[in-house]
């Protein structure tokens, strides 16, 4: 090994860029639950995901380790942020291709969240909204109110939402931004599969377009855009109630507030 540099860190994941003596570079990641990235890479097939190396479990540790081939090409987000890049129409086309490739993955792959079908959706929505209500009642999310929770409950049972989840269930990345998508000559690469979702196609495209500054509602049905924002609320509630219950809820609370702004902005 000639180099090892920390490139990302948060309470559940750290990522180092490692360069070996032979010049090969990898993203070396250590993760804690609920990430299922190691399991996802082990089961997935095809060129959409970069090549990887899985490391054995350490007895008595909840951690998992994986190394994925370092992608030196610019991400979609880096391309869009470059003044020399083309139009947002070109960016939208890249985003649509990447999301179409994701939807072709085997729907039986392991996922962290399953909203494939009305029953699965109702189970997740009830769990998330009950947790959100408890956090709001405890005043842990300033600026989020009981009326917001009630509005979300009504929305979760609306006909457009139920129709959206009552469609073919496909694999979705679940947390897709321009930083995870790398346009390549032979097709896109997509990284960071910690919390994939099984559900209606369109969730990833809504998230990705939102991240690169394109209004997703011009490409994705309104109900799917809102479902993509609801999954952010779900992640926030899970983070502050299950994953890191004793931690400062300021960051999860900010995710909820931003999701609500996006949610009801047309």
From TrEMBL:
Name listed for the protein in its UniProt record: Phosphotransferase enzyme family protein
Residue stretches making up the Aminoglycoside phosphotransferase domain: 64-228
UniProt xrefs under Gene3D superfamilies: 3.90.1200.10
Pfam family membership, one: APH
SUPFAM superfamilies assigned to the protein according to its UniProt record, in alphabetical order: Protein kinase-like (PK-like) (SSF56112)
């Amino acid at each position: 090994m000639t180099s090892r540099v920390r490139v990302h860190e948060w309470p559940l994941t750290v990522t180092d860029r490692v360069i070996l003596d032979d010049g090969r570079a990898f993203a070396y990641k250590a993760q804690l639950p609920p990430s299922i990235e190691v399991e996802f890479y082990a089961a997935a097939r095809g060129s959409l995901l970069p090549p990887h190396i899985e490391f054995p479990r350490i007895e008595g540790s909840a951690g998992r380790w994986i190394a994925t081939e370092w992608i030196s090409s610019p991400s979609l987000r880096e391309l869009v942020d470059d003044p020399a890049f083309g139009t947002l129409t070109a960016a939208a086309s890249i985003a649509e291709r990447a999301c179409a490739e994701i939807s072709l993955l085997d729907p039986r792959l392991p996922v962290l969240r399953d909203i494939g079908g009305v029953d699965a959706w109702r189970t997740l929505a009830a769990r998330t909204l009950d947790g959100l209500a408890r956090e709001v009642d405890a005043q842990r999310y300033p600026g989020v109110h009981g009326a917001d929770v009630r509005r979300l409950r009504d929305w979760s049972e609306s006909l457009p939402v139920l129709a959206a989840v009552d469609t073919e269930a496909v694999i979705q990345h679940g947390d897709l931004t321009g930083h995870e998508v790398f346009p390549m000559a032979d097709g896109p690469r997509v990284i960071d599969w910690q919390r994939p979702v099984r559900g209606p196609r369109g969730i990833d495209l809504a998230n990705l377009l939102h991240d690169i500054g394109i209004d997703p509602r011009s490409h994705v049905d309104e109900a799917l855009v809102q479902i993509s924002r609801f999954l952010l609320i779900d992640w926030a509630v899970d983070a502050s109630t299950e994953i890191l219950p004793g931690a400062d809820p300021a960051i999860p609370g900010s995710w909820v507030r931003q999701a609500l702004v996006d949610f009801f902005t047309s």
